[in-house]
Amino acid sequence: MQIPKNLAELSSEPLHASLAAASMESMNLLNNIAGNYPEAISFAAGRPYEGFFDTDQIHEYLRAFAGYLRSERHMTEQQVSRTLLQYGDTKGVITELIARNLAVDEDIHVDPRSVVVTVGFQEALFLVLRTLRADDRDALLAPSPTYVGLTGAALLTDLPVLPVPSGEHGLDLGELVRRLHAARDAGHRVRACYVTPDFANPVGVSMTVDDRHRLLEIAAAEGLLLLEDNPYGLFHRTPDRRPPTLKSLDTEGRVVYLGSFAKSGVAGARVGFAVADQPVRGGLLADELSKIKSMLTVNTSPIAQAVIGGKLIANDFSLVAANARETAVYQDNLTQVLQGLAKRFRNDAGVTWNQPDGGFFVVVTVPFTVDDAFLEHAAREHGVLFTPMHHFFGAGTESRQLRLSISTLTPERIEEGLDRLAAAVTSRLYGATTADATAGAVS
Fold first, then answer.
1. Residue 20: what pLDDT?
2. Whether 13 contacts 142, CB under 8 Å
3. Is 424 helix (H, G, I), strand (E, B) or coil?
4. What does the pLDDT read at residue 5?
5. How would you write 130-147 as a 3-class SS string?
6. Which residue of 18, 306, 372, 379 is surrounded by the most CB atoms within 10 Å?
7. Contact 237, 104 (CB under 8 A)
8. To 5 degrees, how large is the angle CA 234–CA 50–CA 378?
9. What angle do CA 288, 311, 295 make, to 5 degrees?
10. C-alpha span between 246 and 275 (Å, rounded)
């Protein structure tokens, strides 16, 4: 884009400080590289599988939701039309349906009044952080590495993120306590700890059930609020034996549950939610969130909510059942990627990877720094995309890891993509030509 020369330049000095943060550029940089190499096979984006997309279902879901308004809410045709087409309640028009879904799928039982329907998960996260951040003493604990959307939302709300190391099973709980105490000793008021117990983005690891109970005990003993993010919890290898969410185990109101229908509902609807049932100021934390939402997005599109509500109704409020086909695809893809890595790198010392039992992500460790220059080289010379893990650690951090997302590719594209990844890694390790690297990687 060419900028006209006669326009006055707006000084960058008065703009919000977050705009100068390197982490705010991560998504744009990765999207630009992907855009420059459209033929590259992408293991980068953690998006839902597209093979079952069906636009006819949108109309079916809208009809199902309208039928619910007539039969269960006893609305007239005029009221149904107003609910779908007019501005709606700030908290949302499907709060009751979300509460029913949580009871069916997660054994979480909440009053619909504690639910705020948001424009995706990201708004839910922003509302909570904006509500909790009162002054410069406030801070947030989060695992390291962590989801870039958490880092970005914290920057936008001027809430410092204090990192807590993660291990094979998620948050290091001993370090969590130590860093919480150190933060308080330094004068911080730690408002909450962000955590993804199931298949966390980016590392793909999950907390044990014992650690979930211990984390809740720590939260109770320390007076700490937990922000539970659960986008991948449905996608276990054995869906009927999924571990309990923190919120389902919470008996003291220590957990704010943040959800999204991007992976399990309809991604294009952009509908998420927060369950915030903590008492505050004679009401609920959800009431405080809705005040901010009313000045931010006013309300979440009722039509988008109706699509999600209709999907819940059509599947007896179970997204586990609704996603049976998708879960099978993700499990097959995960198995194929893990077996494919073992086949291609069995003789390469220093190339390792984790073994998640579900979710979307696998992390590969290599004996060299994985920076954005290597990503661009892999895209340009080998036609493959991934996400360098340094984007999840913060500015100035070097990493020897890359994240592979297994969710969107077909089996054929996975095989070809792993060949290309092996070629890129092998050429970096041994300085081979593209052809030689490819041949050596799969021999």
1. 81
2. no
3. helix
4. 75
5. HHHCCCCCEEEEEEECCC
6. 306
7. no
8. 100
9. 25
10. 12
pLDDT given for residue 22 in this prediction: 76
Pairing of strands 271-275, 115-119: antiparallel
pTM given for the model:
0.94
What pLDDT is attached to residue 6? 77
Indicate the burial class of 383 (C-beta count within 10 angstroms; 0-12, 13-18, 19 or more). Answer: buried
Query: What does the pLDDT read at residue 440?
Result: 39
Cα–Cα distance for residue pair 310/312, rounded to 1 Å = 5
**Paired tokens of 122:** 């990201």
Residue ranges in the chain whose pLDDT is less than 50: 433-443
C-alpha span between 137 and 159 (Å, rounded): 9
CA distances from 219 to 8, 263, 373 (A): 52, 28, 41
In the three-class reduction of DSSP (H, G, I as helix; E, B as strand; rest coil), residue 85 is classed as helix
Both tokens assigned to 94: 């499907």
The two structure tokens encoding residue 197: 């117990």
Note the pLDDT of residue 432.
53
Measure the CA–CA gap between 167 and 386, rounded to whole angstroms. Answer: 22
Structure token pair of residue 127: 């509302």
Q: Which residue has the tokens 């420059």?
A: 36
